[in-house]
Write a structure and sequence with these properties.
The protein has 17 helices and 28 strands. By secondary structure, it is α+β, with helices and mostly antiparallel strands. It folds into 3 domains: 60 residues, no CATH class; 137 residues, Glycosyltransferase, CATH 1.50.10; 307 residues, Distorted Sandwich (Beta-galactosidase, Chain A, domain 5), CATH 2.70.98. The strands form 7 sheets. It has an 8-stranded antiparallel β-sheet, with no helix packed on it.
Length: 709
């Protein structure tokens, strides 16, 4: 053992240990009634006749059940246990490490001695070079290394992989009886319900089907211990459902056990309850616009993947699905298309990560082959039909998507006008990302390791996003009940899409949960307006209104995924290099100070782009600050003008024009001529392009509540 004596541990109680030991004891000397595995079987099933006839001798009955499992041809799995598909070289490398008791979790390796402590966490030890990260224990206990060992065995035929895997499985089962009377979702737990679900739909079923035909490495004792432990997983998951994407994984795992082991008396109940929960969640945790309530594209697709995983296994084995199950998934697939950025990803809103939209839509086509627009994206235009809708909004998620076309060179902006979300939330309301000409220019910091580091706090905070800071204070919506961040109706936002322009507008500070800073001040209303002048440039206008007459400092931040030059006098920012470029031109009725922050650690983290979701490491990136100090109603207006490689910036200059109570500007174009933009005190937005003018009239906007410090 390599656990520090004072390291917190989730050791089971004496009662739990006794209950767990009873669950796995052989039971021969205790009599038939004392054998939980055999008692859990439906011995009236015809295929268990040999087990039934031997029931008075538990050892013989167990041997008969093991023979049945090894010989049966149904239920079906996604490969034939007699001819499993080969693994990869990466699987063999991971398996070789596991043979030496070396495991990697969340990118951090640890080597155990002869004994493995399944509740260990090297990141929480004093002197650890890594920030404390409870995901190390949790994700390690999803047993992906075991999957690699099973694949290495069936690929190479080396029995050492199989024998060591069987030893580790039985050791894990012996050390980790399921909790009794409660779900254990705390640090160091091996039985978080999310891990229990993942094990049952991911690693354990594949391992079982790779080893079940090989008693020479996976003896009956190990086989039956594993199957009985899967039974206990199903009972545990059935008893303690949670919510959100966790519930999808829990129910999917429970469904897998019920579908794969119908020999158990309760298999039908597990299956029925799991499918009922999943069907309910398709409606309950997915908004009408198709976005899962956590408003996190990565976890949206986790939920989708579990809905679909249960569907595929059920259909493979002739299990009926609840009415409306499949049809409810179409809008979830469609979210990936409608929100997709030109690089065929979805912006990493909240704790999200890179998403392969082509792959996801390809999977969706197996269920919805009529979707020619998905086929067009999946095939890069070789098949199907180009999607008709370019720009769109998601009324419940509050996302506004502005798009010039469906090519990888499209000009694209996605703005987040939505609620905080049910889980994985970031302080990012009114933030946006911007792509053009095959390059991402304005980025969201995305996600990081789920640890206790300053970098993790950075990506959660408004500092990791493209928003406004007030008097050094950031957005703060945390602290409320999760259900309070789930909306029942479309959010308050303005949205117009026309052939020549797209327009979106929303506020921060008008809702009770929308506060500033740790003291939750509620004295400032921020409205952001974004106008896409198709298909050339964007105008972004920030309006700040306080409920007092005091001066306030407003800092606007934009994270740029490129090296940049900044003219401090004018605030004009231009990206460097010979490829596609972005230019930002700011104006205000008040003096603007501008600066670049990059690779900063103190006094606060700023100017970084994390390398990967769930892992440590980040690369420096410039973040431009535009700062104004003023009282009353304050406006800042910026033009974001992208240019293709080798091409001129489409906007050469932006000049401020006096506008009482509002802001106006003349935009000079590289091709000649000017555009005029005006935001009046009433909020009316007008864009004049030569003899043509477009006007967007405001909807009533919320007012900030009284100052509360």
């Amino acid at each position: 053992m390599e656990r520090r004596i004072d390291q917190p541990s989730v050791r089971p109680t004496r009662r739990e240990v006794c209950a767990g030991l009873v669950a796995w004891c052989v039971g021969a000397e205790q009599g038939p009634a004392a054998d939980p595995l055999l008692d859990a079987l439906d011995l009236d099933r015809p295929e268990l006749a040999e087990v039934r006839s031997a029931r008075s001798d538990p050892s013989s009955a167990r041997a008969a059940f093991a023979r049945h499992l090894r010989a049966r041809s149904r239920p079906l799995w996604f490969f034939d246990p007699s001819t499993p598909p080969p693994g990869s070289q990466a699987d063999i490398e991971i398996a070789d490490l596991a043979m030496r008791h070396t495991f990697e979790s969340v990118g951090i390796r640890h080597t155990f001695g002869p004994e493995i402590d399944w509740g260990y966490n090297p990141t929480t030890l004093p002197g650890s070079p890594d920030a404390p990260d409870h995901e190390w224990t949790w994700q390690w206990n999803r047993h992906s290394a075991w999957t690699a060992m099973a694949r290495a065995f069936t690929t190479t035929g080396n029995p050492d992989y199989g024998r060591e895997l069987a030893a580790q499985i039985t050791d894990w089962i012996r050390q980790n009886p399921p909790p009794e009377g409660r779900a254990l979702n705390s640090p160091y737990s091996r039985w978080r319900t999310i891990e229990a679900g993942i094990r049952m739909f991911d690693s354990w079923p594949e391992i079982y089907h790779r080893l079940v035909r090989h008693p020479e490495v996976f003896p009956d004792e190990a086989l039956l211990a594993m199957v009985d432990c899967m039974r206990l997983h199903a009972e545990y998951l059935d008893a303690y459902p949670t919510g959100g994407n966790w519930l999808c994984m829990e129910a999917n795992g429970q469904l897998h056990v019920g579908a794969l082991f119908p020999e158990f008396k309760n298999a039908g109940r597990w299956t029925e309850h799991a499918l009922s929960r999943l069907r309910r969640e398709i409606d309950g945790q997915v908004y009408p616009d198709g976005v899962q309530i956590e408003l996190t594209p990565g976890y949206h697709n986790v939920s989708l993947g579990n809905f679909v995983g249960a569907l595929r296994l059920a259909r493979l084995n002739g299990i009926a699905l609840p009415d409306g199950y499949q049809s409810g998934l179409e809008r979830m697939y469609a979210m990936n298309l409608r929100a997709m950025s030109p690089d065929r990803d979805v912006p990493p809103v909240n704790d999200s990560w890179a998403i392969d939209v082509r792959r996801i839509l390809g999977e969706g086509l197996t269920l919805f082959p009529q979707r020619a627009d998905w086929a067009w994206i999946r095939s890069d235009g070789a098949q199907g039909r180009e999607p008709r809708e370019r720009s769109c909004r998601f009324p419940f998620a509050g996302w506004a998507v502005m798009r010039s076309d469906w090519t990888t060179n499209a000009r694209y902006l996605m703005m987040d006008c939505g609620p905080f979300g049910y889980g994985h939330q970031h302080e990012d309301k009114l933030s946006f990302v911007l792509h053009a000409y095959g390059k991402r220019f304005v980025f969201d910091a995305g996600s990081y390791a789920y640890d206790a580091s300053d970098m993790r706090r950075y990506v959660l905070s408004a500092r990791g996003h493209n928003v406004i800071h007030v008097d050094g204070l950031e957005q703060n919506r945390r602290g409320g009940p999760r259900d309070g961040y789930v909306v029942k109706a479309p959010v308050a936002m303005e949205w117009v899409t026309k052939p020549g322009y797209d327009y979106a507008s929303a506020t921060y500070g008008g809702l009770p949960e929308e506060t500033w800073g740790p003291d939750k001040r509620r004295n400032i209303l921020h409205r952001r307006r974004v106008l896409f002048v198709k298909s050339t440039y964007w105008i972004v206008c920030d309006t700040l209104e306080s409920d007092d007459r005091l001066e306030h400092t407003y800092e606007s931040t934009f994270h740029i995924d490129d090296e940049v030059d900044l003219d401090a006098a004018s605030g004009r920012l231009t990206s460097k290099g010979t490829g596609p470029r972005i230019t930002i031109l700011p104006i205000s009725e008040h003096p603007i100070a501008s600066r670049i922050v990059s690779a900063q650690i103190q006094p606060v983290v700023q100017g970084w782009l994390p390398k990967r979701h769930g892992r440590t490491g980040a690369d420096p990136r410039p973040c431009v600050y535009y700062t104004v100090r003023a009282s009353g109603v304050v406006h800042l207006l910026y033009v974001f003008a992208p240019a293709p490689a080798g091409g001129p910036c489409p906007v050469t200059d932006v000049r401020h024009i006096p506008e009482p109570g509002g802001i106006a500007a003349t935009v000079s174009l590289a091709e000649g001529g000017t555009h005029g933009v005006r935001v009046t005190a009433s909020g009316r937005v007008t864009l004049r392009t030569g003899a043509r003018a477009i006007t967007v009239n405001p909807n009533p906007s919320p007012k900030p509540p009284p100052l509360r410090t």
